[in-house]
């Protein structure tokens, strides 16, 4: 597995509103800062502009880039962080040269990615036709109406459709970018990068975009410690009753609180944590598959294989072979 090159689209001549800088900064932060101790070489990031730069962008902001749309072709990954609000709200046409460049990049074999309203650009290029996709929930109705060939899912954080990936807005874009690192370089590298960015290591794409009844801040002290304890004891046969007892809650209250906070049921959350542990161990150690099943709490080698095939589409052995240079020890690495 390797990092490769990442080309990020910047709509220069239309201008980048200050409130869209967040989506633009996400790929710059994840892929643009070298992390040689995690992977060397790191990603090769290029900001590719659609024009000559806005004379006076919104709130006095204008951007100029070194690379142009021709540089999208040949990139391993192309990311459209967002499109200007008038293109979403008022139907302003996107630059035709951008749409052409996106199609050419895809035909050349690039992995295509959108964050937030960037999905409108991929949809306009026809790259989402017949695919499941998402965007910020405030804009998914417009996306579905304007592009009826797209199967729009307004409820999820991001959608990984193999060579085309889309995310909801704001922090969901960060989730998707870390997911790309996980696909390219493995769970251990993605987890370490997330730790440096002081963000959760992994929120699954199927998690809800927003929570109707978030956990009150004053109650977090009762939930967070037990989840951390569970992560440190995944090798044990944990049950909802066990975790609820440790959190000094009834099982029903614990179930409701965890689902409100994470968008997942306790069993779904536990399975996700166990799979993450197993992936990290497969990448970083030469431990037998049977032992990894025990340490992750997934049980036998057959049970581990079942969950990997069901949720990751690959066997544990196949997953391990993708990371031949990452296993530095036969011992059990510290938990991360």
UniProtKB/TrEMBL annotation:
It comes from the Bacteria. PANTHER family: ARAC-FAMILY TRANSCRIPTIONAL REGULATOR, HTH-TYPE TRANSCRIPTIONAL REGULATOR RV1931C. This is AraC-family transcriptional regulator. Residues 224-322 form the HTH araC/xylS-type domain. Keywords: DNA-binding, Transcription, Transcription regulation. One of its GO terms (molecular function) is DNA-binding transcription factor activity. It holds the Pfam family HTH_18.
